[in-house]
Amino acid sequence: MENNIKVLGSRVVLSIPPAPESTIELTEEVKAKLQAEFFQQLKSLEVFAVGEDVTKVKPGDKVYVPTSVASHSDKTIIDDQVKMIVGERDIAIIW
User: Fold this and answer.
1) Block mean pLDDT (10 aa), the chain, length 95
2) Is this prediction's pTM over 0.85?
């Protein structure tokens, strides 16, 4: 996918699937717990974009990042989709 963003340094932007949404009103605490459980289920994420210093992965690769990294990483919205930003060193497996 062609995008017009420029990622700096050794950062990697990953596409993550949308989290399931609840039809009932949840407290922030419950939302945080559900989000943490959701991140534990993520096994393969697609590389959306990479910084100029990244050498091991490219857009379109499938990667795994440890749950602790996924749950504490920065998130942003690009093209109406949630993206996760991690360092290249945080990627544990490349498919």
Assistant:
1) 82 87 85 78 89 97 92 92 96 95
2) no
